[in-house]
Amino acid sequence: MTSRFDLIIFDCDGVLINSEELASAICIEAVKEVGLDLTLHEYADRYAGNPIAEIWRMVERDAGRPLPEGFQGRVDQMVFKRFSTELVPIHGVVDVLEASKYPRCVASSTQLPRLRENLGKVGLLDHFDPHIFSGSQVKRGKPAPDVFLYAASQMGCDPTHCLVIEDSLTGVTAARRAGMNVIGFAGGGHVSPGLEKRLREAGAIDVVRTMQEVGERIA
């Protein structure tokens, strides 16, 4: 498959590290404060892949009321605390990165300082540095294509020759709008049973459940 591509672009949360699952578990408890009672899968299906500021706007819209004063800061502190002890790479991702010889980078919705910090915590920073790009570096976050187009331009690659690995509908949509092919990754702990079908419907050329399968496709 990779003979068709010049660059592999990885999303981070839920693809490289288990941050999506950890953060979603905290957030489903937090949003009960504004009247939203969601399961882990419901929360991830609704909000995963969006920039955090957009998630809070969506939560306010869905709840029909503004978030309480200090809400975002309190949630951020809880997420940071949990990340400090429970953040790990997705199973098998180190083997994939060590085996693949293709140029690669990260393009994530997470703010750049936190993105680099999270990758460093789990020992993945050196696998990508300095080719780590964030939605905070562009005008519009996913599902707009901006961060993927920015990553391709910084890496000197034609977007049509890029392959994206994404775990969310938002991310798959952004990659397709950038003119890129995308593989859906449905191996995170936050993934709902119906996500694979929805990733294909959003435009993923393939959907896999394990990093071993990712490795086979970018070998």
Which CATH architecture of the largest domain?
3-Layer(aba) Sandwich
What about the largest sheet?
Answer: 6 strands, parallel
The total beta strand count reads 6
Compressed to H and E, one letter per element, the order equals: EHHHHHEHEHEHEHEH
Category by helix and strand content: alpha/beta
Tell me the fraction of residues in β-strands, as a range. Answer: 5-15%
Calculate the mean pLDDT score and round it: 95
Strand order of the largest sheet: 3-2-1-4-5-6
What is the total number of structural domains? Answer: 2
- Which residues form runs of ≥5 with pLDDT under 50? none
Measured between the Cα atoms of the first and last residue, the distance is: 8 Å
Question: What would CATH call the homologous superfamily of the largest domain?
Answer: HAD superfamily/HAD-like
Give the % helix.
Answer: 40-55%
What's this, in brief?
This protein is α/β, with parallel strands linked by helices and 219 residues long.
Compile the SSE list and pairings:
Elements: E1 7-10, H1 19-30, H2 40-47, H3 52-63, H4 71-86, H5 93-99, E2 104-108, H6 112-121, E3 132-134, H7 146-155, E4 162-166, H8 169-177, E5 181-185, H9 195-202, E6 206-208, H10 211-217
Parallel strand pairs: 1-2, 1-4, 2-3, 4-5, 5-6
Helix pairs in contact: 1-4, 5-10, 8-9
